[in-house]
Sequence to fold (675 residues):
Amino acid sequence: MSEPILSGHRLKKHFPVRGGFFGRAAGTLRAVDGVDLEVMPGETLGIVGESGCGKSTLGRVALGLLPPTSGEVRFEGRDINRMGRSARKTLRGDMQIVFQDPVGSLDPRMTVRQTVTEGLLIHDVSSRREREQRVVEMLGRVGLDSTCLDRYPHEFSGGQRQRIGIARALVLRPRFLVADEPVSALDVSVQSQVLNLLVELKNEMRLTYLFIAHNLAVVGYISDRVAVMYLGTVVEQAPSALLYERPLHPYTMALLSAVPQAHASGRRKPIVLQGDVPSPVDPPSGCRFRTRCPIAQQVCADVEPPLVEHAPGHLAACHFPGESMPNAAVRAIG
Amino acid sequence: MTSPLLRVANLRTWFHVGARTAKAVDGVSFGIAEGRTLGLIGESGCGKSVTALSVMGLIDSPGRLEEGSSIEYAGRQLVGMPEREIRTIRGSEIGMIFQEPMSSLNPVYTVGAQIAEAFRAHRDVSRGEARTRAIEMLRLVGIANPEKRVDSFPHEMSGGMRQRVMIASALACEPKLLIADEPTTALDVTIQAQIIALIDELRERLNMAVLLITHDLGVVGQVADEVAVMYAGRIVETGSVDDLFENPQHPYTEALLASIPRIGMSRDRPLKVVGGTVPSPFAWPPACRFADRCEYAFDRCHREEPGLFQVGTQRSACWLCEGGTREASHRMVEPTVRTSP
Fold:
């Protein structure tokens, strides 16, 4: 077994919530609340969950963009939050991120050339000619020709802007890439182009991905393993085929059944969960999902279920894993 | 067949910008019968929202419904109807919900006041009666504690609840036609499932006709009876949901369906990619508008624009369908997700 390229142990990220007259701390928002993370070299780990589940915060903690409240993140065995300046700078070249918003994540006053070159300048890639060559090469690789070099972001479509963002992230030849909802702002036909591109680039550049998204079909398509997050914790984690075939956690089952399917054979009656996601400032006792769980019992309110391995590589945090749900059509899809 | 409640024929909504004209909607025809749901799908800029706004009579200068456009609602022609008369129909007989539940609600009024306002605009009722109606509507759309929630402000509610409020306000006058423009796009999947189920339940209970506009093929598959696929200001294919998704006849529909990853698919199989870009609404090609991106295109496609050809239960605007069924290379394959024990 090789060593994980990135690992996190009992990661927590809490944000103080200010309120009241003098902005006193009124509470704590537990965005990430005890997550173990292990990403093997060359794999794609998908993180899926609804808004506010902490998936983006986790991505930022994994990159060291946010220091964890507790726990540590290790990249190739070294704690990234206890590094000297120069080691950290090298690290930045090895770990990169692609953002969701192809408009907001590009500086409107910088040309494509400047945007993509900036990283190379910071990392002292020596000659001007070499920089130029690498930028053109990278842009070509993501499907943009050199006529784009001196144009500004507003001149491009959403899909093209996302390609620029990918070129910007990959020009430094990182080994680890966090993709935070990279395709959710795009139309479906453009989405497929960008997904295919990410898969090709991963194979060519031997990248490791942490792929964050709310769309289960997209995450399942691109990932080797998927972790499902709910209110700051991982409730289930498994190789993607297994997760979709045999989900154990009721939340995963509900999520899967709620994804509307276009074709008749995949259509079924969704399990409609009642109510909204509780606030991460004041999560429910015991199992965090119990307030919306159709099969919750007393024990779920009293004891927080640990993340337990039920099959090789298949972990779930539930007192009643795999229990069938009230709606009969839940898992039977065929 | 009963005659449709809404019949749109040759709708052309053009925007005159300076010396140029953007033909956002350029010859769209469809009908919806009572109690049925028509899904109008397409990608950004295809004209689906402009179609909805046109039906609502909400097109403003520089936009204009061109000569020959017809929108017939319950036997009455809406095109050219005086604004005063349209107002008695809009909001009362035709309800509308929008994509963004936050910006569609006024932040300084309680949700109850906003539902009551919609109701009082069309019915001669007292404030008290309107408030009772607002509470009733909030209960109908599944908001817990409606007596208390009626006095909440929009910012005190979650996205899903705000969308429920929007639906409550659109349905307060029991419209016969509901136009829902991307009603679930801003919501999470589990909340989306709630809202879709709610719209469908209310449709059945009130026997409404629903025009559901979305870019999400899955949502349409879930609730629509019929589908119309829009591309570049036109409808390129229509048909029943099952037939159209199982056996797409227009190459654009086929490509759309093949480009979405489905649950159970692995990345070993690349997703379908539609090359090129949508032509500009300022200059649609005088031929098939999809031809430049179509892998089946032949010379006629670049010369002449195809009409809608009948293919079984479907209609497809593709020259390949002129003689009937086109053998699509892409078939919706059985999902690889298997039934668990």
User: Anything to note?
Assistant: The CA atoms of residues 183 and 195 of chain A lie 7 Å apart. Residues 328-334 of chain A have pLDDT under 50 and may be disordered.
